[in-house]
Amino acid sequence: MTTPTPPAADLAAPTGPPGPTDPAPTDLAAPTDPAPDPTAPSTRALRVIALCGFLLLAGCLVLTAVLGLVDAVEGDGVGGGFLTAGLWSLALGAAAGTAALAVPRRALVAAQYALAFAAPVLAALD
What's the CA gap between 1 and 42, in Å, rounded? Predict the structure, then answer.
């Protein structure tokens, strides 16, 4: 047994123009997700850049240690606040790099590189 379809006169007519959430009749086949940015780096590329950032962090750690030892020999023999800030910068850069490996975001990779470059600069200020 089939149910009859209601006539078109029985259907409720729209009362006004379609709202911002109502799709237009021609938009039924349009995708709902926005198009990805073609210039954005892929997640694999961001992860590779983050891995290279760990090599940069290791190099900056060596340079920061050398600057700290030079300051200890030539200076008063006490590491100052800027050297400590430089070492914390390296630790935070490693945390940002680890987060960039887990959730690849451009801002995390940029923070990793910025913190890596900040460490020797801060150690040189001491």
Answer: 55
Query: Does the pTM of the predicted model rise above 0.70?
Result: no
Q: How far apart are CA 32 and CA 53, in angstroms?
A: 36
Contacts of 124 (CB under 8 A, 6+ apart): 67
Name every residue whose Cβ is closer than 8 Å to that of residue 126 and which is 6 or more positions away in sequence: 67, 68, 71, 79, 80, 81, 82, 83, 86
- Average pLDDT per block of 10 residues along the chain, 126 residues long: 62 60 55 70 91 97 94 80 94 97 95 97 91
Q: How far apart are CA 84 and CA 87, in angstroms?
A: 5
How much is the pLDDT for 75? 76
Minimal CA–CA distance to 67: which of 83, 81, 78?
83
